[in-house]
Amino acid sequence: MRQLTFVKPGTFELRDVPAPQIKSATDAIVKPIAVARCDLDLYIATGFVTYPGGAFAFGHECVGEVVDAGDKSGVRPGERVVVPFQLSCGRCATCKRGHMNTCEAYPFRAAYGLKPMSGTEFGGALSDLMYVPFADHMLVRVPQGLDPVSIASTADNAPDGWRAVADHLKARPGASVLVVGGAAQSVSLYAAAAAKALGAGRVVYLDDDAVRRATAQRFGITVEALQLKDRRETAKAKRGLGRGASTEQFDITVDGSGDPDALDFVIASTAPNGVCTIIAIYFTPTTPIPLSKLYSKGITIITGRVEARGHLPDVLESCAHGHFHPEHVTSRVVPFSEAAEAMTDPSPKLIFTNDWT
Ligand SMILES: [Zn+2]
Ligand SMILES: [Zn+2]
Fold first, then answer.
1. Which residues does residue 204 pair with via DSSP β-bridges, in sequence order?
2. Which ligand is closest in space to the CA of residue 154?
3. Which CATH class for the 2-156+307-353 domain?
């Protein structure tokens, strides 16, 4: 079968590899229909992030159709499913505790299309077929009426944005939300979209990138340039006047910037007893965090990899009810046959549709 293979930054090859086959009663084989480009994929494709080791199968946000299924896979050929990017068994103690991103049955950070993360090749989504073990647990059916192109990112980045706000809004309905976008391009936008969908009060999205700002405008929220330097000068002047908090305070804050200065601003903008989720990946070994601010304001800080499978049912349900609109984040739809060339397009979210015959 065909497999889009990452060879080196800027170079992809369509390679011929053995097609996967059912090995166990709980296995399924899925043919990708729509595949989204993860925010991390862009950085791998351009060489901004490099990993040792050779070529590997690419693509890991997939909605597809089951084409073969074991007797105990819980799915049947013809059904449309989302394939969560992380592999998990749903049976081990860690999965049962809800931590399916660190399943005991797989190497740490096991995922499709990201061999360097775990050291094991699980295949990629930009392939003719994907092998899905523990399909009875892994696969989640696409609700009736949802377009695979609209929801391709529910395999990873969409739930990543969702988790930054969903549980906190449940605990504090109507809370105010600040999202600062940046390196985690689409995840930040999904977080802003999810905040709106989940009934947050004031939602503010800040980003210096005009394309992402235009995207965020689609959610009916407040969108402004970040302009960190100006904001800091204003804050300093206000402090001088003794007006207490020097920047607007939000109950729930989300840092998708990947910029330590912006992160510092996000923390300064988190209200006392608020919660700040860092969805951006900081690639440097250490990043400055103002612990004194966190301590004195009682701010909870959360970071870590998304629990894609865990949040998937809620995300899809919200999409099916017309509340959450991941399709508003999509910047470009590209056929599989042009995926290799399009992979380094800097726009926030690419969705690849399977035109291979
Ligand atoms: Zn990803
Ligand atoms: Zn497990």
1. 178, 222
2. 1
3. alpha beta
Task: Return phi, psi of residue 151, to 5°.
Answer: -115, 15
How far is the centre of ligand 2, averaged over its atoms, from the C-alpha of 87 (Å)?
Answer: 8
Q: Stretch 95-99: mean pLDDT, rounded?
A: 95
Q: How far is the CA of 106 from the centre of ligand 2 (A)?
A: 8
Distance 70 CA to ligand 1 centre (A): 27
CA dist 249 and 165 (Å) reads 16
CB contact at 8 A, 60 and 126: no
Which residues, in sequence order, are bridge partners of residue 6? Answer: 12, 56
**Closest-approaching ligand to the CA atom of 125:** 1
Query: How many Å apart are CA 14 and CA 11, to the nearest integer?
Result: 10
CB-proximal residues (5 Å) to ion ligand 1: 38, 40, 156
Ligand 1 centroid to Cα of residue 110, in Å, is 11
Q: Bridge-partner residues for 302, per DSSP?
A: 277
Question: Which of these, 255, 244, 297, 246, lies nearest to 273 by C-alpha position?
Answer: 297
Q: Which amino acid is at 304?
A: G
DSSP calls for 35-48 = EEPPHHHHHHHHTS
Question: Among residues 187, 184, 183, 167, which one has the least CA distance to residue 175?
Answer: 167
**What CA–CA distances, in Å, run from 85 to 35, 101, 310, 315?**
11, 10, 12, 15
Ligand nearest to the CA of 161: 1
| Distance from residue 354's CA to the centre of ligand 2 (Å) | 30
Class of domain 160-303: alpha beta
pLDDT digits (tens, 9 = 90+) for 238-285: 776 655 567 999 999 999 999 999 999 999 999 999 999 999 999 999
C-alpha of 118 from chain center:
18
User: 135 alpha carbon to ligand 2 midpoint, in Å?
Assistant: 12
Beta strands 28-36; 61-69: pairing state: antiparallel
Q: Where are the domains of the chain?
A: 2-156+307-353, 160-303
Ligand nearest to C-alpha 155: 1
Closest ligand to C-alpha of residue 281 is 1
pLDDT higher than threshold 90 for residue 72: yes
